[in-house]
């Protein structure tokens, strides 16, 4: 449950300065240092949701999807002073709400025990732990 005072908004009006500050607060400086690309990423997302406490942006999640066969959960961020309060869970549930009928829901995240536990609590499993046997995941990062 999200603690009192936190409001999750779908299709929020975002100030790029507050978004950049949130990315910096969680240590995602690669995004924060390239504001034009961050702005394009937000604009190109299928869905963006935000969490606010007393009007201040404390969380954000975004989805990229075709709306039919695949949904990619991207950039789930919660400000350090708002973590462990249910904000991340509320953001993910709100972000994925329109994609309930989409079979494939995918994400990439850091290799930290807390990340794994969080996403598993939301029904995600690592590909190596999936019953599909032949399931593989590939990723390519270009400089």
Subunit arrangement of the protein? single chain
Distance between the termini: 39 Å
Instruction: Report helical residue fraction.
Output: 25-40%
Unreliable residue stretches: none
Task: Specify the number of helices.
Answer: 5
Average pLDDT over all residues: 90
Count of β-strands: 5
User: Quick one: biggest sheet?
Assistant: 5 strands, mixed
- How is the largest sheet built, in terms of strand order? 1-2-3-4-5
Shape by Cα distribution: globular
Helix/strand order, N-terminal first? EHHHEEEHEH
β-sheet strand percentage: 15-25%
Structural class: alpha+beta
Radius of gyration: 15 Å
Description of the structure:
By secondary structure, the chain is of the alpha+beta class. The protein has helices at 16-25, 29-32, 35-44, 87-96, 113-121; strands at 6-10, 47-53, 56-65, 70-78, 104-106. A five-stranded mixed sheet has the order 1-2-3-4-5, sandwiched between helices. Strand 3 and strand 4 (70-78) form a beta hairpin. It starts with 5 loop residues before the first strand and ends in a 22-residue tail after the last helix. The relative contact order is 0.15. The mean pLDDT is 90.
In short:
This protein is α+β, with helices and mostly antiparallel strands.
Sum up the structure in keywords.
143 residues; alpha+beta; 30% helix
Topology, element by element:
Layout: E1 6-10, H1 16-25, H2 29-32, H3 35-44, E2 47-53, E3 56-65, E4 70-78, H4 87-96, E5 104-106, H5 113-121
